[in-house]
Amino acid sequence: MGASPNPDRYSNAAVRELTKNHHPVVAFGRRTGKVAGIPIETELVHYEDIDTVTLYLNPANQRPFYEYILSLEPRRVIFNPGTENPEFISLLREYNIYPEIACTLVLLSLSSY
Fold first, then answer.
1. Is the pLDDT reported for residue 3 higher than 90?
2. What is the mean pLDDT of residues 68-81?
3. What's the CA gap between 101 and 80, in Å, rounded?
4. Is residue 103 part of a domain?
5. Which of 49, 63, 98 is nearest to 78 (CA)?
6. What is the CATH number for 97?
7. How far apart are CA 73 and CA 53, in angstroms?
8. Could you tell me if residue 2 is inside a domain?
9. Least buried of 10, 16, 43, 107, by fewest C-beta within 10 Å?
10. Is the pLDDT of residue 72 over 90?
11. What is the tens place of the pLDDT at every residue in 11-58?
């Protein structure tokens, strides 16, 4: 969540690295485009079998997506640096979704994703 076609953005690097490491990726952002051949979706679509949602949205921009993310029933939500959100973390825990405060790029580089 928060994917960008701008190659200078961390969200863009995350999509590239996830793809390079053979993780299936669905990218969502405000602007259409592609990253590593993955289209950036701008419409909320319900997906099945989403394991992880990785956030690149600040806490204020996360709020409109709470219900959507919960409806995906992911195993975990990664809060990348600058996205930490105690309100959403509490809500995720109520739904038995693991909130992980980490950096997706670091997790991938350590083979800990």
1. yes
2. 98
3. 6
4. yes
5. 98
6. 3.40.50.720
7. 10
8. no
9. 43
10. yes
11. 999 999 999 999 999 999 999 999 999 999 999 999 999 999 999 999
> How many domains are there within the chain?
1
Q: Which residue range is the domain that position 94 belongs to? A: 10-109
- Token readout for 47 is 């997906």
Name residue, tokens 């973390």.
89
88 CB burial (10 A radius; 0-12, 13-18, 19+) = buried
CA distance 79 to 103: 7
Torsion of CA 75, 81, 87, 88, to 10 degrees: -30
Tell me what pLDDT residue 112 has: 87
Give the tokens for residue 101: 């405060």
Antiparallel, parallel or unpaired: β 34-35 and 38-41: antiparallel
pLDDT for 8 equals: 97
